Amino acid sequence: MPVTDITQDVENRTLTIRAEFAAPVERVWALYADPRQLEKVWGPPEYPATFVDHELRPGTRSTYYMTSPEGERFGGYWDITGVEEPSGFTYDDGFANADLTPNPSLPVSHNVYAFAAGGPGTQATYTSTYDTAEDLQKVLDMGMEEGARSAIDQIDGFLARG
């Protein structure tokens, strides 16, 4: 499986996930840059994503929703803050209301996604930082770690298909 390590650091309010992909950095980058590819792996497999807007360019907002097996939609957004193609990007990730506007009652994470050549393909490090330890705990209680692991673990299979 691609995920090699998950570290929760409550003191520093971070969740860091390390993964290895059997594909070159440019191919992993292409997955995150293309909304049609990204929606195949964003979120757990049983909660497929639909990206309504997505462009990896600083100052843009990506909006998406994930659909539960029962048909319920859960919205989210990314405010893209930095892009270094193909080595990574930064963004603020938040929960959204049904109309895909930010939901201020739920935590926002500040994310750094970094990709580097290594091993048989790409070493990826995903770091999410929260404003408070309580915010980190809230998303952990919501199943963020398990959801992220299952989402990232499906990337190699998707990349191998094409």
TrEMBL record:
Q: Enumerate the spans annotated as Activator of Hsp90 ATPase homologue 1/2-like C-terminal domain.
A: 22-159
Instruction: Give a Pfam family name.
Output: AHSA1
Family the entry assigns? Belongs to the AHA1 family.
What sections of the sequence does the record tag as coiled-coil? none
Query: Which superkingdom heads the taxonomic lineage of this protein's source?
Result: Bacteria
Source species: Phycicoccus sonneratiae
Name of the protein in its database record: SRPBCC domain-containing protein
InterPro entries, alphabetized: ASHA1/2-like_C (IPR013538), START-like_dom_sf (IPR023393)
